TrEMBL record:
Belongs to the nlpA lipoprotein family. It comes from Rhizobium leucaenae. PANTHER family: D-METHIONINE-BINDING LIPOPROTEIN METQ, D-METHIONINE-BINDING LIPOPROTEIN METQ-RELATED. Keywords: Lipoprotein, Membrane, Palmitate, Signal. This is Lipoprotein. It is found in: Membrane. GO terms for cellular component: membrane. Pfam families: Lipoprotein_9. InterPro entries: Lipoprotein_NlpA. It is a lipid-anchor.
Amino acid sequence: MTKKSSEGLDTRHFSRRTGLAALIASAVAVFGLTIAAAPSFAADKTIKVGIMSGEDEDVWRVVTAEAAKKGLKIETVAFNDYTQPNEALERGEVDANAFQHQPYLDNQIKQHGYHIVRVGYTGVWPIGLYTKKYKTVADLPKGAVIGVPNDPSNEGRALRVLQNAGVIKLKDGTGILATTADIVENPKNVEIKELDAGIVGRSIDDLDAAVVNTDWALKSGLSAKDRIAQESIDGNPYRNFIAVKQGSENEAWVKTLVASYQNDTVKAEFDKVYKGTGLSAY
């Protein structure tokens, strides 16, 4: 005969119901913990990141390994032209890119209407004045031909290096997008030759000097011994960064991507690859 409690309940059924409820509650609790710990992207999430070909590919191999530990798979897409990574990102051909500084992106947005935003800094490469023919800036002859990058942001940056070195003077109030039209003093009557950023360093033998982005200087076989002037690092606005399409900046994979770059393991590889010519900027 089944015993009943003072409230008239079947204690056998109550016990079974209580045990079942406890089991369900336990499962829910465990499941809830699993959900809370898991990233919001799938474990096999793969993203494409546009980078520049060359030394940065070595750095991004380490970034890729760090991301894999966090459940994010990275496929890098290497470009040889600075104009391509943003176009690829805007079209959705890559999910992120990492190659540019803010003045460059601002100009690209102005020109093309891109919807691209910065999400995490990577490094800074102080731009410098290089020459194979002279030991100091003072040695540059009258009429010297000096190459500079021809894209607006880097040309303005290069002209400021020349101004700080005393080669030219720009008119007061000139912004970061200075051009040769802004030169108001040129005591040595130097000729400024505008060339593609990827070519200017490789043209050094045909020039008296050239202002070259550090990454391209390395690719062109230039070293610190060839550099006779360099921009200041303090307060430098030209820190490179990882960028994504606007609207994606708060996605969980973006935070994982940035964390996969901004760590000591990647910094060690960065320092090894760039030998002090580039500096971590986060």
